[in-house]
Design brief:
Elements (H helix, E strand, L loop, with lengths): L2 H4 L3 H4 L7 H11 L3 H11 L23 E3 L2 E3 L4 H21 L2 H6 L23 H41 L8 H23 L6 H22 L6 H37 L1
Antiparallel strand pairs: 1-2
Helix pairs in contact: 3-5, 3-10, 4-5, 5-7, 7-8, 8-9, 8-10, 9-10
Length: about 280
């Protein structure tokens, strides 16, 4: 092994290959959800209702309604509804692609550089070889258990993220004024699974990166707003604000997770270039 190779972090030397293009694409897919904010602002700018659209009182789904007129007592008219619905679908696909490409082992270690791994996904325990056989075995079993729990949590986060992504794809494909219950089901999938995914991922990364606090906070805010919406039936003075407290943190938290992973992949790639 050359001196240059030893500069590589152990996470790059062993499974998973953190510098893989697959993981970089997965990270970018998560970051792509930020396009939602641009699209929403553009659609609000094109609003043609009798009164201006307000993020405080207007529902997000009103922006994707196909027809102009009264909907559940609200004056709705969104000429740019196609852009909004496409944005919903693109956001969901970004989450689904990210969940598919970013393996559980990668998510378990992505937020911390230099995490040692054994081939096959079992981490090395520093100093095990130097101790007596009994202590070595105990340390190895403990390390393997911690690794297994981390991979399980990461797998749960992947499943929840994919579910949330599928939910917002449904929201984009089935606008609120189509009369289909699938729209409400898709929205609930996005809010519930998305907030829980951030809680799991934020907790998993809590000791690995400061951004974990942002991800965890986003999950807490979104989940608390979802509970509040359920308890009140959204009959609050500013339903648009409450709904955005459910949805905006998920977009921000998913993008933050993508940023963490993209930074880790770039870090590993930089080390590899220096080692050549």
């Amino acid at each position: 092994m050359t001196a240059g190779t030893t500069e590589l972090s152990a996470g790059a030397l062993y499974y998973p290959d953190v510098a893989s293009t697959r993981f970089y694409v997965g990270a970018l897919a998560k970051l792509s959800v930020l396009q939602y904010f641009v699209a929403e602002s553009a659609v609000i700018g094109a609003w043609a209702g009798q009164g201006p659209y307000s993020r405080r009182t207007g529902y997000i789904s009103d922006l994707g309604a196909l027809a102009c007129g009264d909907f559940s007592g609200r004056d709705v008219c969104s000429p740019a509804h196609l852009l909004m619905n496409v944005s919903f679908a693109v956001q969901g696909l970004g989450m689904i692609v990210g969940a598919f490409l970013l393996g559980s082992a990668l998510l378990c270690c992505a937020a911390r550089t230099g995490v040692p791994f054994a081939r096959g996904g079992v981490p090395f325990a520093r100093g095990i070889a130097a101790g007596p056989a009994g202590r070595a075995g105990q340390a190895a079993r403990a390390a393997r258990a911690r690794w297994g729990a981390g991979v399980a949590a990461a797998g749960t986060a992947r499943l929840l993220t994919g579910t949330a992504g599928a939910g917002t794809v449904i929201v984009g494909l089935v606008p609120e004024d189509t009369g289909s219950a699938w729209h409400v089901a898709g929205a609930l999938m996005y809010f519930a699974a998305g907030s829980l995914a951030l809680l799991v991922l934020g907790g998993l990364w809590l000791r690995q990166t400061p951004l974990a606090w942002i991800i965890l906070a986003c999950g807490v805010v979104s989940f608390a707003a979802l509970i509040a919406g359920g308890l009140t039936g959204m009959r609050v003075p500013e339903p648009g604000t409450l709904e955005r407290l459910m949805g905006y943190p998920i977009t921000v938290g998913v993008a933050a997770a993508g940023l963490v992973i993209a930074q880790r992949v770039q870090y590993e790639r930089t080390l590899r270039r220096r080692a050549r």
